[in-house]
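Data availability (excerpt). The following record was deposited with the supplementary files.
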Amino acid sequence: MQTAQEHQRSAFLSLIAEEIRQTSQQLCEEAAVLRETAQALVHNLQAARQQRQERLSEARKRRRSPT
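Predicted structure:
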């Protein structure tokens, strides 16, 4: 049989464990959002780089071709 002090300690530890679980879940959810944001940013940067390279290539072609 648990003493009152043991029961109090067990309840306290359970509360701490639940708080840690909730915080961990929140951190995982926020990390997922950040990962998606980072992936979108990388995609946008790659698209912008590709567009810039295409514009530079077209500009070089226009300079080379006689008009």
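Summary of structural features: Residues 1-67 form one domain.
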